[in-house]
Amino acid sequence: MPYLNLTDSINLVSKITLKRAWNAVKVMSSYQISKLLGKPIQWGYPISISFEPTTSCNLRCPECPSGLREFTRPIGMLQKNFFFETIDEIYKELLYLIFYFQGEPFLNVDFLEMVKYAHDKGIYTATSTNAHYLTDEKARQTVESGLDRLIISIDGTTQDVYQQYRVGGNLDKVLEGARNIVKWKKELKSKTPFIFFQFLVVKPNEHQIEEIKKLGDAIGVDQVRFKTAQVYDFENDPNQLIPSNEKYSRYKKDKNGKLKIKSGLSNHCWKLSHANVITWDGLVVPCCFDKDATHQLGNLKIQSFKQVWKNDNYKQFRNEIMKSRKNIDICANCSEGLKVWED
User: Fold this and answer.
1) Lowest mean pLDDT among 2-6, 213-217, 265-269
2) Is the pLDDT of residue 341 over 50?
3) DSSP letter at 156?
4) Does residue 182 sit in helix, strand or coil?
5) First to last CA, the chain
6) Hey, is 240 helix, strand or coil?
7) Which phi and psi (to 5°) does residue 159 adopt?
8) Which element (helix H / strand E) includes 227?
9) Hey, CA dihedral for 183, 184, 186, 192, is it positive or negative?
10) What confidence category does residue 253 fall into, taking pLDDT thresholds of 50, 70 and 90?
11) Which DSSP state fits 296?
12) Continuous segment of H or E residues that includes residue 36
């Protein structure tokens, strides 16, 4: 079965307005026409965007620029007034807002205020956290903010396994944070957030797949989901992270035994048509694979969001995608088209 939840799906659908629906129709139809004609056509504005609350993180995960402290771009915190101004411009078309790119969102002291602002505009809001800061009080505030989806990254059911990828992490804190959220959701009789454990499947933890399902049930989260791991040097896999079970990997071996990305690299990209990412300091980049913002399509401190979406940089990048996507560096690890299904 796919990862579907009736309550969560109904909540998402409830956010659709006539203007958002019409915008989605324009985006989806222009994407299909682009594929047929082999040239980029872009109608409408993004259905979904990701906003980066911060680049800071308390952990040191081995395949994460934030964890490794290896950013070449400036680091910092998203300022709420800048966020408010951007949302005011695009909320009528925008359906889905992800508060995540790099870093740990709860390190930004204004994070939940920004969530509430977007919630009050009728936008479906989601975030991903390592759950180390979900104290009892912070969990209550999170539920009260109106956050629609909370992804809790938990990559092991025992401390020794968990810390092999979540370096510097404390599994007991993660579980305590999860219990706090579940508790306050019940006490406040709230249908949101939809809470799920996200288990990044890597070689050190793939033997705990069944255990994490049981742990999720015991804690009371709404779902357990599995995610394939991005490995930058996947051909050599220096940290020995690629799991042996190909179902949970975004890589597979070709007939010569060489690892390659499973999803292929067709010259089109749905993500580029319907979504993008905004860094904490206002840079607009194509997607979440551009961790260091090397493909800057615009700057919201200089142009409005809608001006950036239609500017020459975006037009050129869409052309490059449709001509030779395999030559674009950030596409090399792309997971678009990959699905990991529930057991």
Assistant:
1) 2-6
2) no
3) -
4) helix
5) 7
6) coil
7) -60, -40
8) strand 223-228
9) negative
10) confident
11) -
12) helix 18-37
Residue 211 phi, psi dihedral angles, 5° rounding:
-65, -35
DSSP 197-226: EEEEE-TTTGGGHHHHHHHHHHHT-SEEEE
Please report, rounded to a whole number, the percentage of residues in the chain having pLDDT higher than 70: 95
Q: Which residues contact 46 (CB under 8 A, 6 or more apart)?
A: 27, 90, 93, 94, 274, 275, 276, 309
Residue with tokens 């904490």: 280
Q: Partners of 217 in the beta sheet?
A: none
Task: Work out the number of other CB atoms within 10 angstroms of the CB of residue 114.
Answer: 23
Compute how many other C-beta atoms are within 10 angstroms of the C-beta atom of residue 158: 11
For residues 259 and 47, give the distance between their C-alpha atoms in angstroms, rounded to a whole number: 34
Identify the three-state secondary structure at position 150. strand
CA distance linking residue 284 with residue 315, whole number of Å: 14
CA 197 vs CA 27, 68, 98, 155, 321: distances in Å = 31, 23, 17, 9, 33
Q: Answer whether residue 337 shows pLDDT above 70.
A: no
Quick: pLDDT tens for 206-240.
999 999 999 999 999 999 999 887 777 776 777 77
Distance separating alpha carbons of residues 270 and 54, to the nearest angstrom: 26
Per-residue CA distances from 114 to 120, 146, 160, 244 (Å): 10, 11, 35, 41
Q: Which residues neighbour 238 within 8 Å (Cβ) at sequence distance 6 or greater?
A: none
Question: What's the predicted TM-score (pTM) here?
Answer: 0.93
Split at pLDDT 50, 70, 90, the class of 53 is very high
Structure tokens given for 224: 């357990």
Q: Cα-atom radius of gyration of the chain, to the nearest Å?
A: 20
Cβ partners under 8 Å of residue 19, min gap 6: 92, 93
Q: How far apart are CA 237 and CA 258, in angstroms?
A: 12
Q: Both tokens of residue 121?
A: 């505009």
